[in-house]
Specification:
Blueprint lengths: L21 H9 L1 H9 L2 E6 L5 E5 L1 H10 L5 E8 L4 H14 L19 E3 L1
Parallel strand pairs: 1-3
Antiparallel strand pairs: 1-2, 3-4
Helix pairs in contact: 1-4
Length: 123
């Protein structure tokens, strides 16, 4: 088989998201106060600053229990603003996974429900 020259670009072969803001990534990965906020939260939402859409990062089991039992529960809710299309999402996934033991982010499942998010207690 003859050698065939291809038009290969390393950039075109990757699906990595563009880098996020260095200061935001540093906060997500290294800020102790931010990690305490995540640790104390029962439910964590990410909020895309570019689109305004929110997505669940942690707390799926609690939300499902509330729905299935139809009983209100008090829960601490945290909302984390990021640029979802960048590596900030990966940093948030890593932080939630390390701090909470798992992450419930579903990769942008289109079967989502819009829930008004306010910081504070969910009951």
């Amino acid at each position: 088989m003859p050698n065939v020259k291809t038009n290969y670009s390393e950039k075109s072969a990757t699906h990595d998201p563009p880098p996020g803001r260095p200061e935001k990534t540093a906060e997500l990965l290294h800020d102790a106060a931010f990690h305490t906020t995540l640790r104390d939260a029962d439910i964590i939402f990410g909020s895309d600053e570019a689109t305004g859409k929110a997505f669940l990062m942690y707390g799926k089991r609690l939300l499902e229990r509330i729905v299935w039992t139809n009983k209100s529960e008090t829960a601490s809710v945290a909302k984390v603003p990021i640029l979802q299309a960048t590596t900030e999402l990966e940093a948030l996934i890593a932080a939630v996974t390390v701090i909470k033991g798992r992450c419930d982010y579903n990769g942008g499942d289109k079967r989502s429900v819009t829930v008004p998010i306010t910081e504070g207690n969910l009951s």
